[in-house]
Design a protein that fits this description.
The chain is an alpha/beta fold. 58% of the residues lie in helices and 13% in strands. The chain starts with a strand and ends with a helix.
Length: 139
């Protein structure tokens, strides 16, 4: 079974309907769902997503979006080992480091993000949404 990690920005693009990014983010998640590729976010990402949606659209909108989103995606637990490895990784962005370590612990090798540089030298295969769509079309 294929598995991918969705970076926080992909989910936020969908939730906040960011014009320049939301269509690509929706397209890639729709394709993943249709191809039965399991989408994951980390538990730490969930709190970030809630905070940003609540700030933009309110508590009820944030809750509604998250409940709906988790009908077709999964949440990865973040444990002490992931946190320690993230702290010791040397990465400047701690949130990305946590996502990377959690993905590795769960044998997830692909991350979809808008900011590929954030995952440079992570050991993960990194795609922008449109790149991953093109990759799946090759299969």
């Amino acid at each position: 079974m294929k598995k991918v990690l969705l970076d926080t920005n992909i989910v936020i693009d969908i939730a906040l309907k960011r014009n320049e990014f939301s269509e690509k983010a929706r397209n890639v998640t729709r394709l993943l769902y249709n191809k039965k590729i399991t989408m994951y976010v980390t538990a730490t990402t969930v709190t970030d997503i809630y905070y940003l949606i609540r700030k933009h659209s309110g508590h009820d909108e944030a809750i509604g979006f998250l409940v709906n989103f988790f009908e077709y995606s999964e949440i990865l637990g973040v444990d002490k080992k992931a946190i320690i490895n993230a702290l010791q990784s040397g990465r400047k962005d701690f949130e990305d480091a946590v996502q990377i370590q959690t993905a590795k612990q769960n044998n997830i090798k692909v991350v979809i993000t808008r900011n590929k540089k954030d995952f440079k030298n992570s050991g993960l295969t990194v795609f922008k949404p449109d790149e991953y769509i093109n990759e799946l079309k090759k299969e």
